[in-house]
Amino acid sequence: MQILRTPDERFAGIPEFPYTPRYSEVTDGEGGQLRVAWVQDGPDDADPVLMLHGEPSWSFLYRKLIPIVASAGYRVVCPDLVGFGRSDKPARREDHSYARHVEWMRALAFDVLDLRRVTLVGQDWGGLIGLRLAAEHPERFSRLVVANTGLPTGDQPMPEIWWRFREAIQNRPSLDIGGFVQSGCRRPMSEAVRAAYDAPFPDDTYCAGPRAMPGLVPTSPDDPATPANRSAWQKLCASPTPMLVAFSDGDPITGAMAPIFKREMRGAQGIDHPVVRDAGHFLQEDAGEELANYIVEFVRGNPA
């Protein structure tokens, strides 16, 4: 597997993100190693809150949440998915698969960090990956927060806007990553923030991950990931693990999933689920502080 690593100087001067990256290696699935990055804040011995980002962002997306959740007394762990942020970037789209991304995050969270009593916060692909982990390793999780995400099996059609996004990110000659993130927000970002989203990708050779991810979403019942996702749905629907459904009011991509999570998930019953107002798909960017406060309230109200 050919691996690219973004030079450290690309991350110099990133605004509002004072966290020192940590690194560890996981098996790439082909006999080699991948370096995976994460940032951390809060007491080392506190219950962990695992924040997983999605496409095409990186842990920088959680910068407004990290200090609030950490100051509430929790250990925040925020990785960069393989292919994103400071993590290594497999250079070919074919190197990426749904199963591999689940395994890479499993290896970091459990083999390297040995996280237990985890509160998952998953948005976009962070939910597609994190919910698989929660279903397949329920003993590791105490609470689940789903925020503008899903767990698709290919049995239901994807919205037209998602197909347009997939077409654009797979086929444009070059990618404006900051522009894609801005298009998923309701509120304007500064030029420095847009540049921070561009930072992991010096040129298009580094973009195999962002280009690959839409094609890994199950869109038909015979998708390779469908059986595992169906099994995860069944397990999560029956699970008593408390689930907070914290979607925004302005996400045309995953918004339809909020009522399904609320209705189908046993752990979501009897919980006061908030709606994050005036926020788009990337609700962490639009209303990160508000989302963080909902998470803290939920964790405190549902002791492990």
Describe it.
- About 35% of the residues lie in helices and about 15% in strands.
- With about 300 residues, it is an alpha/beta fold.
- The protein has one domain: Alpha/Beta hydrolase fold, catalytic domain (Rossmann fold).
- The longest helix has 19 residues, at about 285-300.
- The protein is globular, with a radius of gyration of 18 Å.
Order of helices and strands: EEEEHEEHEHEHHHHHEEHEH
Strand arrangement across the biggest beta sheet: 2-3-5-4-7-8-9
* Strand portion: 15-25%
Poorly predicted segments: none
What's the helical proportion of residues?
Answer: 25-40%
Radius of gyration of CA atoms, rounded to a whole number: 18 Å
CATH architecture: 3-Layer(aba) Sandwich
Helix and strand composition category: alpha/beta
Instruction: Count the beta strands.
Output: 11
Summarize the structure.
With 304 residues, this protein is of the alpha/beta class.
Describe this protein with a few key phrases:
36% helix, AB_hydrolase_sf, 15% strand, 10 helices, alpha/beta, catalytic activity, 7-stranded mixed β-sheet, Rossmann fold
What secondary-structure arrangement, pairings included, does this model have?
Layout: E1 3-4, E2 22-27, E3 33-41, E4 48-52, H1 66-71, E5 75-79, E6 89-90, H2 98-112, E7 118-122, H3 125-136, E8 141-146, H4 160-171, H5 177-183, H6 191-198, H7 208-216, H8 226-238, E9 243-245, E10 247-248, H9 257-264, E11 275-276, H10 283-301
Parallel strand pairs: 4-5, 4-7, 7-8, 8-9, 10-11
Antiparallel strand pairs: 1-6, 2-3, 3-5
Helix pairs in contact: 2-3, 3-8, 4-7, 5-6
GO molecular function, one term: catalytic activity
Protein name: Haloalkane dehalogenase
InterPro entries: AB_hydrolase_1 (IPR000073), AB_hydrolase_fold (IPR029058), AB_hydrolase_sf (IPR050266), Epox_hydrolase-like (IPR000639)
